[in-house]
From TrEMBL:
SMART domains: BTAD, Trans_reg_C. The lineage of its organism: Bacteria, Bacillati, Actinomycetota, Actinomycetes, Micrococcales. GO terms for molecular function: DNA binding. Signal peptide: none annotated. This is Signal transduction response regulator / Disease resistance domain-containing protein.
Length: 597
């Protein structure tokens, strides 16, 4: 009954010819489980004919339908007529049942690979336009219901693919759907999210304008879905939205990547103009050469730009910028400022997995701190975080104890308060003290979202998800979804890679290797693209576990080797039991290889 009204039996098929025959069959299928009275069929087929001849015409049509379907298919009784066939032999019923069953899975919090597979199976039953060339009021209602169900299934499938990080597959669905339904604001908003996640932000203004024009043609104005997508994706308001039930906090706007990129272009143009005009004094001021220290605004912009480049996964450029700043501070004897830049460089190296080099820089900063004021506690806290990532919990505890817990205005201003809670939570989580780690992670997340200096809500909220996961609390999945959406919407590829890898581990712990594999593949792809080899190793390791759980032994072996290659590339200090497991030497122990995830 979809695409074409057609009957199949064994290896034979034939079409149902005639408008009345198609309408009669559709009405009987619509009321498959009940007897359909003859007067109902007469009114539906010939609404303008109330004569006794209409009943005779119905008998003729029933006789013709019996000849097409077989004598035992159309049953009759004093109560009317009924088809003697199972509902699963009708494509429209198969689609409706499978789509409703799959969509019911979303009501239980399902955003996983199982849901994608179930929706794929449901959508495979869609054969095209339901009840083509059938004109009957009741059939029109069912046709509309099936169309809405088909659209909803595609929307949920696309949204789930975006959650799993597969923006390309989501766009394959949303692009034709948006063309077919230009006034569907939900579809247009999802398409904009998919374009942003796929790194095609330049298309967003055009997509929004097309959607707005389509609504204008219908005398409509953009509604909340489309306006929210426009503000969120185009205007750069990428704020982290914690899941329901999270402790209330004032959300702090995350740095706008688009705005920072525009500032960079403006700065480059300014330098070119300065060079062209041979304005030596202005160029000296901008570059920090000569006798004058670099202006505070210039330093702030370069650090912001380094932050933006790091978020985009362009670590070499970020380190180059920070190295230039460090050289300027050395030239002008600004050791306090140099210590801050060294800390920023350590943060970038931690993302790439170059933790040994990060510790060396911290050592250099600590030696310099003997001649400066006020950075020792901050550096000790950063060192505690790095050592925690390396699995050296005893040394991390010592560093955190040496740093001391403080709530001074200075510590809040330089972000040490936030880092202290993050380090405390991660140490306790990895040591198995989950009753302590969860509230500590929530406190760090609260501080970050309340607008603390350096208060990036993404990593601290990812800590919450991981603490809940290791404590056996299923609400971790809602936190993972929020962090993943935030990371993709703001173009934070390293954060997205880490979050997907951590979510993969959660799905493995809850016995869902299929969804774990989907998150692992996305994490590995993102980590490779942005050169985060620590996260790449972690993602490949999770992917190997997932493939093993799915029975794909050869794939699991391949991804274990991939994990080792990534860890070697980052010179990451793997624990002996972890290396043995990845090398397939049969040692099974808790994986201490990966910080947050």
């Amino acid at each position: 009954m979809m695409g074409r009204v057609e009957i199949f039996t064994d290896d034979t098929s034939w079409g149902v010819h005639g408008r009345t025959q198609r309408a009669l069959l559709s009405l009987l299928i619509l009321r498959l489980r009940v007897w359909t009275p003859a007067p109902y069929l007469v009114r539906a087929l010939w609404p303008s004919d109330a004569s006794d001849r209409a009943l005779a015409r119905l008998h003729v049509q029933i006789h013709r339908l019996r000849r097409q379907l077989g004598g035992d298919v159309v049953n009759s009784s004093p109560n009317g007529y009924r088809l003697n066939i199972r509902d699963d032999s009708i494509d429209a019923w198969r689609f409706e049942r499978s789509a409703e069953s799959a969509l019911a899975h979303t009501g239980r919090g399902g955003h996983d690979a199982h849901l994608v597979r179930r929706l794929d199976e449901a959508l495979a039953h869609w054969g095209g336009e339901p009840f083509p060339n059938v004109d009957a009021a009741d059939v029109d209602t069912w046709r509309h219901t099936l169309h809405e169900l088909h659209t909803r299934a595609q929307e949920v499938r696309s949204e789930t693919l975006l959650h799993l990080g597969d923006s390309r597959a989501a766009l394959d669905v949303l692009t034709p759907l948006a063309a077919q339904q230009p006034s569907n604001e939900r579809v247009q908003a999802l398409r904009m999210s998919a374009l942003q996640q796929a790194g095609r932000s330049e298309m967003l203004p055009q997509v929004y304008e097309e959607a707005r024009s389509a609504l204008t043609d219908l005398d409509l104005t953009p509604g909340p879905d489309l306006l929210a997508a426009h503000a969120h994706l185009l205007d750069g308001h990428h704020t982290f939205a914690p899941p329901d039930g999270a402790p209330p906090a004032v959300p702090a706007p995350a740095p706008s990547l688009e705005r920072a990129a525009a500032l960079l272009r403006h700065r480059e143009d300014e330098l070119r103009r300065a060079l062209a005009a041979h304005d030596d004094d202005r160029l000296s001021l901008l570059d920090g050469d000569g006798d004058h220290p670099p202006p505070a605004q210039d330093v702030s912009l370069r650090r912001e730009l380094a932050y933006v480049l790091t978020g985009k996964g362009r670590h070499d450029e970020a380190l180059s910028l920070l190295g230039h700043l460090e050289a300027l501070h050395v030239m002008h004897g600004q050791e306090d400022d140099r210590a801050v830049v060294l800390r920023d460089m350590v943060a970038v190296m931690a993302l790439t997995g170059d933790l040994r080099r990060a510790l060396r820089l911290l050592g250099e900063a600590a030696r310099m701190d003997e001649r400066t004021t006020g950075t020792d506690a901050l550096l000790q806290t950063v060192r505690a975080l790095i050592l925690t990532h390396m699995g050296r919990l005893t040394r991390a505890e010592d560093c955190l104890a040496a740093a001391g817990r403080s709530t001074s205005p200075r510590d809040r201003a330089n972000g040490r308060d936030l880092m202290w809670w993050r380090a405390r939570s991660q140490i306790d989580r990895r040591a198995g003290r989950h009753t302590e780690s969860v509230p500590e992670a929530l406190e760090a997340s609260r501080i970050a979202r309340a607008g603390s200096a350096g208060g990036d809500p993404g990593p601290s909220s990812l800590d919450v998800a991981c603490s809940l996961r290791d404590a056996g609390d299923r609400t971790c999945f809602a936190w993972y979804r929020s962090v993943i959406r935030f990371a993709h919407d703001s173009g934070r590829f390293p954060l997205a890679a880490c979050a997907h890898a951590a979510a993969a581990k959660a799905h493995l712990l809850w016995g869902d290797p299929e969804t774990a594999a989907a998150h692992g593949r996305t994490a590995l792809d993102l980590a490779r693209r942005c050169g985060c080899w620590l996260f790449a190793g972690r993602a490949a390791s999770r992917l190997a576990e997932a493939e093993e759980g799915l029975g794909n032994t050869r794939s699991a072996q391949f991804f274990r080797r991939e994990a080792l290659a990534a860890y070697r590339r980052a010179d990451f200090p793997l624990a002996r039991e972890v290396r043995a497991r990845l090398e397939g030497r049969g040692v099974h122990a808790r994986d201490h290889a990966g910080g947050t995830g």
